[in-house]
Specification:
The chain is 58% helix and 16% strand. The protein has six helices and five strands; from the N terminus they run αβαββαβααβα. A hairpin with a 7-residue loop joins β2 and β3.
Length: 288
């Protein structure tokens, strides 16, 4: 009798596993856009024949702007304040600082999806608008598929848990627990995907690229150009002379410290010899 109950439990468990794997595939999938011509209507769908309305659709929207500005740092500050004022935040920022006019920045703002158009209009005012792009991806079918799989797995888990009370042997309990663990793991993965999809639908990223104005060629006066070049050449020459002087000065000091006593001694010896010779010549002149 126990063997019969174990086989019956095993067969029931296999049937539940098969139902859980194939249950999602038998659900009707609603097309994201209505197709023309005759087609069979889904039997279990409660949506209108032409698909869900625009308000009921799940759409992932993204925007991007390229703005030309002379002060990228000031524009980046305005964008941060704009995101915070509209319930958003800066999810990514890459600011290359320079001398102010050469700064370049790429800032990604995350804002509520219903504020996307308004925030893009305001962000374009921080400078001169160069490009504006807006994309929308309909994920209604994906969201419906994930939701259906989550419901199916939850129902399947409840059925497996009900079998735990009917398990007669340790082997049956081990098989039921293994199946329950597998389904709970799959449910957690689906819930994570469901949460990620919901976040993508509810929030919209805006990538703003700030570029500096193109360099302008300003006509120059030939005299001013020559004066500027001459002044630069003079500065370079003085720099070279100072460099050479700085390199020679230590050696000159050492040579002077060694050579000056020798020169001084030689001069002193020459003076003494001249005085002695002069003294010898004077007596001879007197005698004569």
């Amino acid at each position: 009798m126990r063997t019969f109950t174990g086989r019956r439990l095993l067969a029931t468990l296999c049937l539940i596993a098969l139902t859980g794997c194939t249950g999602v595939a038998t659900l009707p999938v609603v097309d994201s856009a209505p197709a023309g011509g005759d087609r069979a209507e889904p039997q279990a769908s409660t949506l209108p024949e032409d698909g869900p309305s625009d308000a009921a659709r799940d759409v992932v929207r993204t925007g991007s702007l390229t703005v030309r500005t002379a002060d990228a740092q000031a524009a980046a500050t305005q964008l941060r304040a704009l995101a915070g004022a509209n319930g958003g935040y800066v999810s990514s920022e890459n600011l290359s600082t320079g001398d102010g006019t050469r700064a370049r920045a790429t800032i990604v703002l995350s804002v509520p999806a219903d504020s996307l158009d308004r925030v893009m209009d305001e962000a374009a005012k921080v400078g001169e608008l160069v490009t504006r792009e807006l994309t929308a991806k309909d994920v209604t079918a994906t969201v419906a598929d994930v939701d259906a799989r989550v419901r199916t797995l939850r129902e399947s888990i409840e059925r497996v848990r009900a079998l735990m009370n009917k398990a007669g042997s340790i082997a049956d309990v081990a098989r039921v627990e293994s199946e329950l663990t597998s389904r709970q793991s799959e449910l957690e993965s689906l819930l994570a995907s469901q949460k990620a999809l919901q976040k993508q639908v509810e929030r919209a990223p805006i990538t703003v690229t700030l570029v500096r104005p193109a360099d302008q060629v300003v006509p120059t006066n030939p005299f001013v150009t020559g004066l500027t070049n001459g002044w630069a050449a003079l500065q370079n020459s003085i720099a070279v002379l100072l460099t050479v002087l700085g390199a020679v000065l230590p050696f000159a000091l050492i040579a002077g410290a060694i050579g000056w006593p020798l020169i001084h001694r030689r001069r002193k010896a020459g003076t003494t010899a001249a005085q002695a010779k002069s003294a010898e010549e004077k007596p001879e002149d007197v005698a004569g």
